[in-house]
Structure formats: C-alpha cells, structure tokens
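>> received
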Amino acid sequence: MKSSVSEFLAQVKSSDANARSEQERLQDVLLCPLGVQPGEYSIYHALAARAYGIGSHEAIRLGYMFTESLDGSKTGKTVKRDVLERDRRKYRQYGRCDWDRPDEEDTQENPNPRPFKELPRVVEGPFVLDVLKTNGKIQRGKMLQKYKDRTGDGANVAWKALARAEIKAWVAECNDVWLPIKDSLPEKLKTIIDELIGDFEDRYADNRDPEPSRPWRRRILQALRFLIAAPTFKTPAHVPPCIHIQFLEDLHDIRQAVWECAKTHWTKVVAMRDLNIRDRQDRLREMSAEFSMLMPAGSLQALGRFNDSYDVEVLKASCAYSVLPSQRKEEFPFDVALRILCDIKARENPPYQSFSQIFAEAAVLDRKYIEDFGVVDSM
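>> returned
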C-alpha cells in the first residue's frame, strides 16, 4: 500500500510524541534498505583519507560509497553484501580519526568507550587535520591559561581595583541621593531600596566586570532621583499618583523574579550533568526562553509605560548579572541571557555597537532593485 510523504510523516509523529524517537524511526525507515549503519562509510572514508591520502584510489572509492549510500533511499542502490563485509573487516577494528572524535566533555553518552587501535598512516608526512586539531588544542590551552592569569589569585589586580572603585562610587552616589529623605519614607520602600543597593554592597563579587551591571545600576539611581524629585510625594498633575514609588517597585519585582529563577537554575544544571551535549543545549534553550518570559513590559506599572520590551530585557539581563544568591550561581546570567549581555558589553564600549539581523538585512540592497542605467558620456 502506497502512501504520500505527508501521510508517512503524520504516521511517524502520531506514533511517538518524543522528537528524538521520531527522528530515529525516520532514520531506520529511510536507511533500512541500504543495510548500512548511519555514518558508517563516512568513518571509513575519513580513515582511508588519513592513512592512504585524500587522492588515493581507496579514499576515492569510499568517498563514492559514502555519497551513494546517502542517496540510496532515493536511487534504490544498495551496497553489495560481500563489499560491505569486506570493508567492515578492514576498517571496523579501528576507531574514528583523532580529529573526528568528540571532546572529552561531549562523551557523556558512552563514559567507558571501547579502546580502538589506530590505522597506520602509509603516506609520508603528517595529515593536515591531525595537525589542525593538535594546534587547536595548543591554542585552546593558551587561551585558557590567559583567562586563568587574569582571573586567578596571582593575576594583575589593577582592573579589579577599578571595578571595585566603580561599584563603591555608585553605592555612595545612591546613598547621597536617598539617605537625606530616608526617615520620611514608608518602611516598605526603605526595604526595597536597601535590597536594591545591598546587592552591590554585600554580594557583588570583586573580580567581576562591572560593565554588564551598568544598565541595572543606572536605572536604580534614576529611580532614586525621580523619587526625591517629588517632595512629600506631591506629584505634578500630568504624572499619575505614586508613580515615583512605582519605578522602584517595578525594579524590585524584576529583582525578585530574577532571584527566584536563579535559585531553580542551579538545581536544573545539576540535573543536566548526565545528559549528552545536545540534550543539555536543548534544556539551556528552554531555560533561556523561560527567563525571557519573566516580567514582560506590560506587567510593570511604571517601567512598562516608558520602556519597550527590549529595554526590559536589558534590565533583566543586567539584573541577573548583578544579583547572585551565591558564587555557584555565577554562570546563571550567561545561560539565560548571553546574547543581551553581549549587546550590553558592546554598548558600554564605544565606538562598538551591536545590531540585529533585521537591521543588517535592511542595509543591503537586493539585486532585484538594482537597475543598470548605463554610462552617460559627458560631451
């Protein structure tokens, strides 16, 4: 009985809700007639190219076998049983080429892999991909060492002193603004201000870059100045009552939501340790999406009136970088808001700027709008 592609896909999707199971079933159905395991001839081709050279007869033959087996489900071609068994006897005893193996952190699926011997290289000289991977590991080690040299105990602490000075100056400026009117404020408002400023007085790490926290700190200071601009809370007619307080309340609500999200983040990260790299990335994307949905602009009393959704996203990301329930949570902001933190970093370092894909596409003139008017010779 024949069925269309759409009917077949509908049957596969209805059979199992799990996306990975769906992909595996599609793979089984499409590759079953070939009698070849997925990626088998790709591995054989890589081994032959390394051992005998990319232009050798054996590497070329296996390259054709690799491409033909990929198209076999459409062309109807299959690998002869005797040829497949011969190739398996020759190459299955060897493991993947070193440059084709995943790094140690990506081998969670098989923590105790079966050891393989290496196919000896026949042609003279090193293989280019082996050289690239070796040098890549060397460069990786150098970059990690540079990072340790900057952030370790024996690092140059000049930039750390500048970071501490910036935070202390900001805290002092905030206190200069609000302490003169502290006694006239409600207790709830005092608690809110103490918590917003206290994140930097008590818990802010000395060895952290202060730039990503600047949008959050600027908005706190702006809200404090807006508060003292209304003596005894008598607001102008064009400003809704209590809006001076609502700015600080909105910031506190964002802080509380980010704080709760950070608390659950560590539990989720621990649960992901036994997952393979793809599943971990999927979970991290889910966490980033959940963080993005926290405190939308429309739910904020005052900030939502004067800021668009992206401004609120920037505040949340900057707050996540600033608010740390403990040191073990320091990877939290980068797991949930890395892209926006990079945007903040660029904006805080002029003349650098970041821009969106939509902006980049708008700056390119499509070919269909280009008209050749020719050349007019001046007489």
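>> Residues 160-362 form one domain.
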